[in-house]
Amino acid sequence: MKKKLNLGKKPPLSAIALFAAYALFVALVPRFFSGGYIIMVINLALIYSIVAYGISIMLGMGGHLLFSGIAFMGGGAFFIANLCSKRFDINMPTWAALLLLIPVFAVIAFILGLVLLKLSGTYFTFSTIALVQVCFTIYNNYKPLFGGPDGIAGVPTLKLFGYSFSSYTAWFYFLAALVLAVALLVERLRRTQLGRSLASVRDNETAAKTLGVNVYMTKVIAFTIAGVLAALAGGLYCLHSKYVSADMFTYNNATQYIIMAMLGGVNSSAGIFVGSLLVAVLPEILRSFERYFQLFWGVSIVLLMVFMPTGLAGLFQRLTRRLTHRFAGKKERGGKAA
Amino acid sequence: MNPILRLDGICKNFGGVVAAKDITFSVYPGRVHGLIGPNGAGKSTLMNIISGIYTPDKGQIYFDEKEITKVPDYKRARMGIGRTFQTPRFLQRSNIRDNLLLGADLGNQIGYLEGYFGKKSANFDGDLAELMEIAHFSFDWEDDISALPFGQRKLLEIVRSLLAKPRVMLVDEPAAGLNSKEIEYAMDLLNMAAEKRGIGIILIEHSMDMIMDICKEIVVINFGCVIANGTPEEIASDELVIEAYLGRQEDD
What we know:
By secondary structure, chain A is an all-alpha fold.
């Protein structure tokens, strides 16, 4: 009864270690890979991780598996491509288009969420697959807006406060800062009401309702946030690659993002980052095995869900816990009866 | 004194089974109302109707003189109808802090945006310390909820419900599975809730000692009907109640 009743914050030591590791990552990557192909791959990994963070909100906190991230990503990418590449005599500044993307896709995702989340559990998951297929078909066939199979080329790079991101290294710094911001926002979400409400939706809907949680709306809000993050990532992808085409947004590619979110640990912001990096960089190193990747991703999803639902972060946590137990003796509990 | 919760002619059938038939009674602030009856009498169904999980086929529910028969479950919780379950319902994959904060979130009555950007989120207002003193145990914040033994989890569910600052609490078999010390603490919690905070409590319980001890009023139901309603003394000597519990004596 003595100590533990103030709102104990987590020991900040691990947070400091994480920030230090991230700073080291940001400092070292350009030093070793500057100007090369690898830094472009790492940039893409950073962009993809934004989608993975969105997925983690629905999957990790809310317990709803969804594939629709890639459909929103495509939407965001084509949105930017149409607004910034002078296709319709529109030549919006890239930063303005990115800012406009957020409210536009918030509305789209919200409306879609209202519809899709009438379904729950597996049925919801299937409906998101359908959404991916429908969107891909539209992206691939409606030439006026999406360029058809040829895609849209000639997209300018991002220009911010007069600075044009012409090198991959410049992009790297920008994306590293942005991903950090997204990770912090998601982490904050986990620790406030919305995160807790989502956890209650995931673990016990009846309890959630009796605790005043509007289950349906909470899910729709989470779906909206996930959609906006994915669309933003799509927009960034388009500006970074200066090109976009539909074949990027297939269902086959969608599974990759689920792995990104799950491999590192779907409820760990650091884990999602590591997972995204691994999933994006690994295929580049193992180019010669490319044809087996679908098989590999499929098997890994199953294995992850069954044996490692908390991902690498959970594994790490269990290991450190076991080690501290061994070396420091059993951790003292708050005491039984007073 | 006006009742805080009033049921008026509540009926509910599941197929051919009558779960509630013309149930009428009132709950007053600061009073513990016992709800007893044999297994399958319809007690839990009634709880579910009050908290909004089931909608009644007929009849009205009034909360603080406002009709809430059509109000959805989560809004009833926000209005101040708290609830605990026979087997405690927690978030198995969250730690104890998050589980309790869910209760406090409801008590604080702030929206998601306000909670996200404001500072008031994650605040127990010293309430928790007081409640845990009555519950007589403590815990490590970061532990999973499953680290607690069953009895403590049940006590903690009452604590969580109280953190939400309810005006009516539905408490489903708090004593089941608890040892005698824990039963005592559960009763202390409920007594404190009623006397100090003026919460109207509906208590389902099979332990007659507990019911007789803390209830000011007892409602007995059987086969979905109210068969008696009165003080513990009246109930203990009521013919129909004795019959329902002990069976009718055949005499010719």
